[in-house]
């Protein structure tokens, strides 16, 4: 696997702000997703899914 592949990045939109989240070997660290927020919206095939970080530091994905 090349270093370029290991360091590929995914763009994420949160609160109308465009940011870049590191992606290594198809793994995203949740700390990079939840910077300054406890919830993100994931768009998938025209549907929106909400990924939330709970007070107990757990993840909940809802449609």
Short description:
The chain is mainly beta and 63 residues long.
Give an overview in words.
There is one protein chain. It is globular and about 25 Å long. It is built from 2 helices and 5 strands; from the N terminus they run αββαβββ. The termini are far apart. It has one domain. It has 63 residues and is mostly beta strands. Strand 1 (9-14) and strand 2 (17-22) form a beta hairpin. The strands form 2 sheets. A 3-stranded antiparallel beta sheet has the order 3-4-5, with no helix packed on it.
How many helical elements?
A: 2
List low-pLDDT spans: 1-10
Number of extended strands: 5
User: Alpha-carbon distance between the termini?
Assistant: 35 Å
Structural class: mainly beta
Order of helices and strands: HEEHEEE
Number of self-contained structural domains: 1
Largest sheet: 3 strands, antiparallel
Helix percentage? 10-25%
Strands across the major sheet, in which order? 3-4-5
Mean residue pLDDT = 80
Q: What is the rounded Rg?
A: 13 Å
Judging from the principal axes of the Cα atoms, what is the shape? globular
Strand portion: over 45%
